Structure prediction request, 208 residues.
Amino acid sequence: MLGDGGVYGRSYTVFCRDRNRSFVQAVAGMAGKIFGVEPRIRRASPNCWMASTNHKKVHGVLIKLGYPRGRKLTNLSIPPRFVEDPEDRMEILRGLFDAEGYCGLDVQRHGEKTYEYPYVGIDMIARPLIKQVQGILEDLGIESSVLVKRPRARGRNPQLSLVIKGAERVRRFADLIGFRHPEKSEKLRRLVEGGSSETIRQAPREAG
Prediction:
């Protein structure tokens, strides 16, 4: 929820937004078991599905846990109680990468030689959150770097891009964290198995 979810107003909670309906359904199922509610699944746009609820109980619990109300700002961070618990930190990390993460191959050509470097990344505007993610990855023995990108369309704040690059680092990410998102998971599997850039691009997508 720190990625593509949120709590708004007095009772509205968005658990997930994504183009992959089966992933949104899976998140809604987990939320339903945790909170004892039945989230509503609907199209948020022609290419995006959303799971949400108007139950005040859910909204209140999340606010007490430290989730920020309203639009996420540049000072967004993981609530302290989740940072301290190793298992909670891992679940937060998996959720963030499922929501905002991506992976692929960086293809570089030098003269007649071509080099392919697998990578996993996540882009957000919240510097404190990116630093927390980098710190957790470092504790897991996964080295990463943070780059500054231009604001997205209509955005004012620069994007902070955290990147895990290199076969061994990406393999460790896959072993310890990975993706639960079906399309991202399949793409990561192909990366770890040493697939070519053409194979990675052909990773299947769910029809909207």
Residues 42 and 50 are 6 Å apart (CA to CA). The chain has eight helices and eight strands. Residues 6-72 form a domain with the Endonuclease I-creI fold (CATH 3.10.28.10).
